[in-house]
Amino acid sequence: MRGGTMAANMLSATPSAPAAAFLPSLPQAADAPKTTVLRAARLLDVESGKMLMPGEVLVRGERIAEVGTVVRASARRGSD
User: How many other CB atoms sit within 10 Å of the CB of residue 56?
Assistant: First the structure.
């Protein structure tokens, strides 16, 4: 192949618009769901019938993510 032909082929294969324009936008940090840890002196586990002392509920956005006597330490760093 001649050098000019290869360069012409490479240029024709290159899109005219930046590829990033076609990628879906990624969620920003502000779009991340709010994380909250609710703490209670006592929390009833209705499935087992046992009282958890103390009790904690980890809420991410509008969903309960975890329930127990101590929720994950990594979740506590982002809690309010």
Answer: 20
